[in-house]
From TrEMBL:
Alphabetically ordered keywords of this record: Signal
Keyword Signal listed: yes
Position of the signal peptide: 1-17
Origin species: Cellulophaga fucicola
Pfam families, per database record: Porph_ging
This protein's name: GLPGLI family protein
């Protein structure tokens, strides 16, 4: 596996001198759930079918240069004004705008609720495979990892390309793989690049957010747990 990683890292040496910035537009699809998940829940099944159709109207944009990246929903106001499209965005796992700094190895997440979360970029235990496929003009490699969720373990699949040698991707999937993620299959939704624009004439400048009143990931989780418990207690009164 170390030899495979070494070979992959060698591939983009030429590209590294050529690609310095770009914009990736992703579309999303809601992953199909087993029919057993909707047993006795016909209304939920119909809602999810409607959300799946609405998801085709939701796009995400990743803008990046050699040091920073910004990932957020495209045409945010239009998405927020549509109940189904907004629900599709939530299901996709997106929390807001993600700012990534590779030199600082951290992300700032500006949530749609106005909360600013600071999260370190940590090394993840990915299984890098030899399986490949083309996305657009780029040769992508398959990487997988197992993620534990309340309902059990789920396998996350990422298709990344060393030909764009920057460790960026959707949401918090950054700084983890030897190339940019062009497709990500998560728990509920799949992101896939539908437009790739590299080296634009106008420089891409990422404005790093002011680091004031940032919460850590653990603080954010504690606040969310407290809010959930408070609302639960109110319903009991």
């Amino acid at each position: 596996m170390k030899q495979l990683l070494y070979l992959i890292l060698l591939l983009p040496l030429i590209s590294l001198a050529q690609i310095h910035s770009g914009t990736i537009t992703y579309g999303i699809t809601v992953n199909k759930q087993e029919d057993s998940s909707y047993k006795g829940k016909q209304e939920l099944k119909e809602l999810m079918m409607s959300v799946s159709k609405a998801a085709t109207n939701v796009n995400y944009k990743l803008q990046f240069n050699s040091a920073y990246a910004q990932f957020n929903v495209d045409n945010k106001l239009a998405v927020k004004d549509s109940y189904l499209e907004n629900l599709a965005s939530i299901i996709s796992g997106n929390k807001g705008t993600y700012y990534t700094s590779l030199p600082q190895k951290k992300q700032i997440i500006n949530t749609d609720a106005g909360i600013h979360i600071e999260a370190p970029i940590e090394n993840e235990d990915w299984d890098l495979t030899k399986e490949t496929k083309k996305i657009g003009d780029f040769l992508c490699y398959k990487a997988t990892k197992v993620k534990t969720v309340p309902k059990g373990d789920v396998t996350v699949v990422a298709w990344y390309t060393p030909e764009i040698p920057f460790a960026y991707g959707p949401n918090n999937y950054a700084g983890q793989l030897p190339g940019l993620i062009l497709e990500l299959n998560g728990l509920m939704a799949t992101y896939k690049a539908k437009e790739i624009k590299l080296n634009p004439k106008k420089a891409i400048v990422i404005k790093w957010p002011k680091e004031k009143n940032n919460m850590s990931v653990s603080e954010y989780k504690k606040a969310g747990d407290k809010l959930y418990q408070d609302r639960k207690d109110e319903r009991k009164r």
